[in-house]
Amino acid sequence: MAITADMVKNLREKTGAGMMECKVALTEANGDVEQAIDLLRKRGLAHAAKKAGRATGEGLIGSYLSEDHGTGVLVEVFCESDFVARTPDFQALITAIAADIARAGEAATPEWVADPAGPVQQRVAGGIAKMGENMGVGRFARFSGRGLVGLYIHLGGKLGVLVELDGTTGAAAQHDAVQTLVKELAMQVAAASPQYARRDEVPAAVLEREKGIYRAQMEGQNKPAPVIDKIVEGKLGAFYQQVVLPDQASIRDPKTSVAHMIAAAAKEAGATLAVSRFARIKVGETA
């Protein structure tokens, strides 16, 4: 297929590689962006494996957190201008939509949110009529029933995070160390953008892809197979440190891992703690 300038520019933005290298990689991959990224990484030309999200509109993240911190909601609500997003009316709208989702419980499916006759779309229609801009609801997350939920809103409402902790029932949920931990974890997710709560959540196909790239990087170096295997495992450990929350370095203290933070809080509270899940939603960002 024909490789356009926009395709080359897009790949350059995702990888940091040179324009010519991006064009060559896209040509070899027949325009497949993911394959082109892999080719550049194998050649040591891509500076990052993770692609950045692309902004698609204005809006804010609505949120809800129950009084007992057992239920939390994030919802992405779009509008046309940042001016409207900052108005009290729009902020009241996103808060009401988040509360609607919380009240709906398990019934809050994407289909329920999109139902023109449902409470969410009725609110959106009212907002459009009142504020004079087109609006819509994007992604949302609702956590409830597994443990203590932490909520963090950043960038003036453009980015929201929910984190849920297992092992936080009864007195453990009220312990200062646990309360502090769940807030710190939410801030960690906002800043470091992990993809998985545990190593065993990383798909086997993703691991095999990474291993294949690491092995390709060492082609022609004439290293013994056991040495290559050891290097690959070391690189895989570094990969985990990028994408798995407990493996990440703490944003507060890079010498301390998130896993160590969790263990320290668990010891202080006399509980067994683990992150069961988290959600990170930034306005206009796509996977």
Shape annotation? flat
Kindly report the average pLDDT value.
89
CATH hierarchy, class of the largest domain? Alpha Beta
CATH architecture level-2 label of the largest domain: 2-Layer Sandwich
User: How is the main sheet built?
Assistant: 3 strands, antiparallel
- Strand percentage lies at 15-25%
Share of helix, binned: 40-55%
User: What's the end-to-end separation, in Å?
Assistant: 25 Å
Count of the separate structural domains: 2
Enumerate how many helices there are, as a single number. 12
> Strands of the largest sheet, in order across it?
1-2-3
Low-confidence stretches: 48-56
Roughly how many Å is the radius of gyration?
Answer: 22 Å
CATH topology of the largest domain: Tetrahydropterin Synthase, Chain A
Which structural class fits the helix and strand makeup? alpha+beta
CATH superfamily of the largest domain: Elongation factor Ts, dimerisation domain
**SSE string, helix = H, strand = E?**
HHHEEHHHHEEEHHHHHE
Number of strands: 6
Quick recap:
With 287 residues, this protein is of the alpha+beta class. Helices cover 47% and strands 17% of the residues. The two termini are 25 Å apart.
Annotation keywords:
287 residues; alpha+beta; Helicase, Ruva Protein, domain 3; Tetrahydropterin Synthase, Chain A; 2 domains; three-stranded antiparallel sheet; 12 helices; 6 strands; 47% helix; 17% strand
What does it look like?
By secondary structure, the protein is of the alpha+beta class. It has two domains: 52 residues, Orthogonal Bundle (Helicase, Ruva Protein, domain 3), CATH 1.10.8; 162 residues, 2-Layer Sandwich (Tetrahydropterin Synthase, Chain A), CATH 3.30.479. It has twelve helices and six strands. The strands form two sheets. Strands 1-2-3 form a three-stranded antiparallel sheet. A three-stranded antiparallel sheet has the order 4-5-6. Strand 4 and strand 5 form a beta hairpin. Helix 1 packs across helix 3. The longest helix is centred in the C-terminal third of the chain and has 19 residues. The protein is flat and about 65 Å long. It starts with a helix and ends in a 5-residue tail after the last strand. 33% of the residues are buried.
